[in-house]
Amino acid sequence: MSRIPDERPLNPKPEVITELRRLLPAASVLATEAELAPYECDGLSAFQQRPLVVALPETVEQVQQIMRLCHRLEVPVVARGAGTGLSGGALPLADGVLLSLAKFNRIIDIDPANRSAKVQPGVRNLAISEAVASHGLYYAPDPSSQIACSIGGNVAENSGGVHCLKYGLTVHNILKLKLVSVEGELFEVGSEALDSPGLDLLALMTGSEGMLGIIVEVTVKLLPKPERAQALLASFDSVERAGAAVAEIIGAGIIPAGLEMMDNPAIRAAEAFVHADYPVDAAAILICELDGFNAEVSVDVMRVRKLLLDAGATDVRTAADDAERLRFWKGRKAAFPAVGRISPDYYCMDGTIPRRQLGPVLNRIAELSAESGLAVANVFHAGDGNLHPLILYDANNPGELEKAEELGGAILELCVAVGGTVTGEHGVGVEKLNQMCVQFNSAELTQMHAVKAAFDPKGLLNPGKAVPTLHRCAEFGAMHVHHGELKFPELPRF
Amino acid sequence: MSRIPDERPLNPKPEVITELRRLLPAASVLATEAELAPYECDGLSAFQQRPLVVALPETVEQVQQIMRLCHRLEVPVVARGAGTGLSGGALPLADGVLLSLAKFNRIIDIDPANRSAKVQPGVRNLAISEAVASHGLYYAPDPSSQIACSIGGNVAENSGGVHCLKYGLTVHNILKLKLVSVEGELFEVGSEALDSPGLDLLALMTGSEGMLGIIVEVTVKLLPKPERAQALLASFDSVERAGAAVAEIIGAGIIPAGLEMMDNPAIRAAEAFVHADYPVDAAAILICELDGFNAEVSVDVMRVRKLLLDAGATDVRTAADDAERLRFWKGRKAAFPAVGRISPDYYCMDGTIPRRQLGPVLNRIAELSAESGLAVANVFHAGDGNLHPLILYDANNPGELEKAEELGGAILELCVAVGGTVTGEHGVGVEKLNQMCVQFNSAELTQMHAVKAAFDPKGLLNPGKAVPTLHRCAEFGAMHVHHGELKFPELPRF
Question: Which of B195, B206, B486 lies at the smallest CB-CB distance from A423?
């Protein structure tokens, strides 16, 4: 299956393979069909494309040489971390080099006094917390894939996780990046001090999906492990009431470490899979974790318990011990694979909405689901309004994948309509290019292209991802033009 | 006095005044010498320059019309908020329009459920907290000038304050901006939801010092007022020990709401001015404020007290009540004017360093002070390593201003040398252009110019500020070239 929304005319240059073999050891240049197969998609398997060649550099110098080569030959480059991304940001190009950072897997330095660590981009997210645990520290952002996903990919997609409600997204938890430019030059953005003067290129790089440079080193912030974590599990007989409870908790000035919601289909799937002792008849459950100082957690647990009951919870359980707390999370953490057991395929969406819209939006998603005939399970970061509707379908039934994508698109457009955005933490990649046309007007998209061109005038870094062309938006027909049009200097097309 | 480090050839176009009078009411276009005088500098009075004309628009449409006019005539534009900035970011250009946002002073909307407020850029920082106080909310960043400074200026300079140790800089406390482009088009960056897809233009705009667009609306995040605030005042007989205590507190996993340090000259000046009952013989004091949940604050106060004593504090006072807590702060808050009383002039620097360098850097500043013959008082945000050395001088003594600037430059370069940066919260403006050459290499500066050009190809928005030209750096002779050079497409010069 090849479903590439790429508007570029293909221009394969096989000489790049020969030249790469001069730069890298034989085992680090993959070009046979069998070797390329594992790289044909990332975590978004609906889109597949084999690259022209995969390069596996081991040193910064090799990355610089590869970029100089590709720049000279005008060959596009797609960077790849662990390949767990869910929006197709690392989808290869048929005429491009796939630059894997898998061999950049060293923790370079841990600085407990400055609460920071310097790591290579291929280091797994969880490996950072493991490496610094003996200092009482951890790295806060925790995507569901944290066992497997790489920190470089986290930066490229500005990843979140359960804990980002309290501790922020990746952009709030990194200090400095080392990158290789499209022309092969090494540069740094950010600083280990409070603020970096001049333009905030660190934030600009974070979430830029490989379009501005190749990340070769990441300095992350570390946090002290909280003294105590405690969790509550609340049952509701309507998703609206559960949504309202979320707004009540946040509105009371409490910032939980995590505040997650699952609806009935998700509860049932998780319970059948891992037996977490979930209330299978509840319309929705909320799992609320509080962490911090012991005395603070004790009082906040009481306050949250009261808020949940006042908001109409039919039952509220407080974990008696850490084993029970982990059991509360067991079902939530297994929810995606659990849904995978009850449906041949599922499509995980990722949109954000203002918290107060949770109830109405979940109801509208149920209506859209009924209209399309495809079931939807909801498992998501309710605290920050980050929805993850899982659309259940069977790719073997002709037309169902397309129907699932259509329903997904409609859900994202609903998010924008209520004042939200088309992504929370998974990035745009290739998946949400059309919805970017709904989110932004052509002036705003043009501005993003202009910024991209400031780093990559020839459009060689991950072309076709994250920011749609105006042409594509015009074809999609959902061009959002609430303001006028900005006229920037003539820009290259990506 | 005219001390403009501007490399642009002047090109005054008086017709812009006539045309502005067609767009705005007579009282909103200022062009006589007497009318222009109040605008000849911002908070950095060492640099002064009258603009060609001052425009005081009242509506977004008027801002758009002014920008269209200036774009057509190719007249440079400098935006100005309250004019309290300390790095000369709002210094006018002799041939430019000074665009004052003073009349944009309305709070448009307060949304307690979403904990956000939408305000015009001319609204004063403190006015936001006052307007939302009845909801139990406040806006966290608190520059010393918060009674007077405007939120638009805060965004332009990415301002900090005492509370930014715990609650972050301006960039961490805003959600969305509305801007007018150099061509007069209205556009938005950011979102009221968790994350905004595509490139992070919100962070890019924050701290960009008026070089990328004119801010016409700011949506800020609001925080719940903490249940309790408590403060400690610790005396030390050496600045090094005080610096080490700061590192101990932060290293213990405590994040105070504020952690401020004053050295002996600053203590004496403040005490003489406001009688805060400071220990006038101490080499340094630390003021540590803890806020949050009542029980948490109680225990943290005990922990901090013990850490301070263990670190060698000769005395630690805990505020008995809120009146005493406010007295602790009274001297700190009055420290700048207090220093103004003991010296005809002073020059406030703003650099950041890694916390563990506090002691050594303060010692080296004392040496540099002795070498130059100018006294230095230190009053600063110790918790995040943000120094504010106040260099005392007398502008009436020939050569002393130059000597003060030289000492200031040497201190900033010292900050960079120990791994810090040349600004913490005051921005670069015109003041630190030379030090930017020390902080960044030419490839990095070239990249900033390329990003600037993506928004403002003709270089009409606040030219000559924040990012030095490579030519200037070459002349300054401190060009920092630890990496190679990036070659971007031919760029306009600013």
Answer: B195
